[in-house]
Amino acid sequence: GVHLRSNYLRIMRAVLEHLRNGVHSVDLMGGSIDASKLRKSAELFRRASRPACAADKEVNEVCRQILAELDQEDAAAEEEDVEEEDASMRWSVIGGITSKSSSAASSAPAQREYVDCDSLPDDHKSNDDDVEEPGPGNAVPASTMEEHQK
Q1: Relative orientation angle of helices 57-94 and 4-20, to the nearest 10 degrees
Q2: What are the angstrom distances between the C-alpha of 107 and each of 94, 116, 142?
Q3: Is the pLDDT of residue 104 over 80?
Q4: Contact 77, 28 (CB under 8 A)
Q5: Cβ contacts of 110-116, under 8 Å, gap ≥ 24
Q6: Which long-range contacts (CB under 8 A, 24 or more apart) does 133-138 make?
Q7: I want to staple 69 with a disulfide (CB 3.0 to 4.6 A). Which of 15, 19, 50, 83 is the partner?
C-alpha cells in the first residue's frame, strides 16, 4: 500500500539534508514557485502535526528544521539585497546621480564612459581614504571628471 506519511518524511529529510549542505531552495525545487510551495507545505504540516492536532513529533520536527533553514536563506538573501542597494546608492551619489530618472519610457540604463582614477593628476584624486572608489576597478564616470575639471 501507499504510505503517505513515510514518503513525506523521506522527501522532507532529503530536502533538509540538501538545504543544510548549502543548496538554495530555488535551485533544489527548480524555481521560485516550487520553493514557495515547499515553505507552504512545511508550514502546513508543522501546524497539522503539533500536539494540539495530530501530535506527530517526527513530522513536526523535520518541518520545523526546514523552516529554520529557509528562514536563514531568506535572511542571507535580504542581507545581500541591502548590501547591493547600499553599493548602488553609493555609486549613484558618487556618480552624480541622486535619483532614478522619472521618465518611465527610458528603461535602458545610461551608457557611461569610465576614466581610470590612477591616470589622473594628484589634484583630481580624493584625499579621503574612507571613500571607496566607484565602478569597475578604480574608475569613475568620465562625465563626473569633466564636471570636476570645469
Answers
A1: 30
A2: 21, 27, 22
A3: no
A4: no
A5: 112/141, 112/142, 112/143, 113/141, 113/142, 113/143, 114/139, 114/140, 114/141, 114/142, 115/139, 115/140, 115/141, 115/142, 115/145
A6: 134/90, 134/91, 134/94, 134/95, 135/91, 135/95
A7: 19
Query: How far apart are the C-alpha atoms of 150 and 144, rounded to whole Å?
Result: 10
Average pLDDT, the chain: 73
| The amino acid at 38 | L
Contacts of 67 (CB under 8 A, 6+ apart): 39, 42, 43, 46
Residue with the larger pLDDT of the pair 71 and 85? 71
At 90, is the pLDDT very low, low, confident or very high (cuts 50, 70, 90)?
Answer: low
Q: Is the pTM of this model over 0.85?
A: no
